[in-house]
Amino acid sequence: MSDQATDPATETFVAHRNLLFTVAYEMLGSAADAEDVLQETWLRWVKVDLEEVRDQRAYLVRITTRQALNRLRTMSRRREAYVGPWLPEPMLTAPDVADDVELAESVSMAMMLILETLSPTERAVFVLREAFDVGYDEIAAALDKTPAAVRQIAHRARQHVDARRPRQVVSPSQARAALASFQRVLDTGNPQDLLDVLAPDVVLVSDGGGFRQAALRPIVGAEKVTRFLLGALGKNDLPVTVAPTMVNGSPALLVRLDGELDGIIAIRLEDARITGLYYVRNPEKLSRVESETRLTRR
């Protein structure tokens, strides 16, 4: 371990690991796949002659981006056979992430779903440029394109995202207040209280992945969403509890059934009303959160 700790390649990789993971996660929407990309990046990185590398951070980002693009193209084919709507794998995030509005938005469920509508190349350019302020020349080198072409792609992707992102930036305190109201509603089961916090055209997307019951299509409208949520949470014979947490830079709720994690509900806010609900129930996407919450509960 002492030799590994002083190895320059290892030190550099560890120093940039969080950046590389976030790049891969924002491109893929899957923590498990992002970890695989980091493993592939590491295997290529240890074969590099460091004396030939002028900018080690840029070189690592380049490897990660290319591996993530390869995996993204494979995943797009896999998602064609996915049962019901697909949602990103939720990631627990520290409370201070929510105070960084730009970072919180870049990993939010709403933004991750918008990124899903971009082409793989557009997504890579947008993530690198907008989320991490990577230079056009550096992105061009990672994608084997000219800086001029990257600028055009970035402009097109930015227009696409801007047309779909929330119209109003909500402060962390507003988000926490709305989530607290939402949690009280789920605890009491009062339909009118839930209708009071939902926007009339609220959209609920639920992802069971074919393993757990979920709506096969998005549910639109406050009344329909209310019936679905209260019905889904109220028909279990086992006790249901909800607890606040931070997921993808925003407040969310952990839904437990008889103490076991059953799902995560992330919210999207506009004008202090809930306009989007993202209910992840696919157990394959909950295993990371479950293991991390178990450690904190001990």
Give a quick precis of the structure.
By secondary structure, this protein is an alpha+beta fold. The chain has 14 helices and 6 strands.
Describe it:
With 298 residues, the chain is of the alpha+beta class. It is built from 14 helices and six strands. Strands 2-1-6-5-4-3 form a six-stranded mixed beta sheet. It is globular.
- Biggest sheet statistics: 6 strands, mixed
What does the average pLDDT come to? 87
Helical region count?
14
Helix content: 55-70%
Mind sketching the topology for me?
Layout: H1 2-6, H2 8-28, H3 31-45, H4 56-79, H5 95-99, H6 101-106, H7 109-115, H8 120-131, H9 136-143, H10 147-162, H11 172-188, H12 191-197, E1 198-207, E2 219-220, H13 222-234, E3 240-247, E4 250-257, E5 260-270, E6 273-280, H14 287-297
Helix pairs in contact: 2-3, 2-4, 3-4, 4-9, 8-10, 9-10, 11-12
Keywords:
6 strands, 14 helices, 298 residues, alpha+beta, globular
